[in-house]
Amino acid sequence: MTPDLHALLLDFDGLLADYDHRIHLRQLAEAAQCSSTQVDAALREEGLELAHARGELDGSQLLAALNQRLDSRLQPCDWHAARTAATTVRRDSVALLRQLRPGVQVAILTNNGLLTAPVIEQLLPGIPVLCSAALGVRKPDPAAYLAACAALHGDPVRTLFVDHLFRNVQGARSAGLPADTAHHTQSLRRLLRRRHLL
Fold first, then answer.
1. At residue 1, does pLDDT exceed 50?
2. Residue 88: helix, strand or coil by DSSP?
3. Taking burial as the number of CB atoms within 10 A of a residue's CB, which of 63, 91, 116, 144 is the most buried?
4. C-alpha–C-alpha distance, residues 80 and 63, integer Å
């Protein structure tokens, strides 16, 4: 017999929001007074963004490294503004979360770094945000899901994980969580109904 679910752990980008990395780069470039290509090279080619997502660089360290490479003076507010401009919340999908049966705990599990967590919290007020940088491990590593459940004081077998990427779903299943993919509001609604969460 499948245990009743008491928690819902959700991906953010690609499930509850659409993210345009080009807009993020363009906004950062305007603030840094350089080109998007330069920002992209610093973040990706030199591995700064990945190091930030892994928790190897906190927000201040990431911005200091960027500013050194770009000869700029980027501040946390610049990152937050750029990330907000690049993110469009899927309102219909988020509305489903207000329809969940009583007693179901909801949280976000994202591979974003610490600088982005406040943006997600502002866009989805009242929903805890667990980011890979804080947990010290990234999806699809099974340890990421166990760390998230521990942070929520939840039981993995009673925590449903939903992501738009199947590899992340596979990681959650390896950790013992019931997990499935969803790509839009309709598929998320069907999944939540099938799992008796709506």
1. no
2. strand
3. 116
4. 12
Q: What is the mean pLDDT of residues 94-98?
A: 96
The dihedral sign for the CA sequence 13, 14, 18, 24: positive
98-147 residue pLDDT tens:
999 999 999 999 999 999 999 999 999 999 999 999 999 999 999 999 99
Q: Provide the residue type at 16 as one letter.
A: L
- pTM exceeding the 0.90 threshold for the entire prediction: yes
Q: Kindly report the number of other CB atoms within 10 A of residue 4's CB atom.
A: 12
54, 111 contact by CB (below 8 A): no
Instruction: Provide the 10 A C-beta neighbour count for residue 3.
Output: 9
Pairing of strands 17-19, 129-131: unpaired
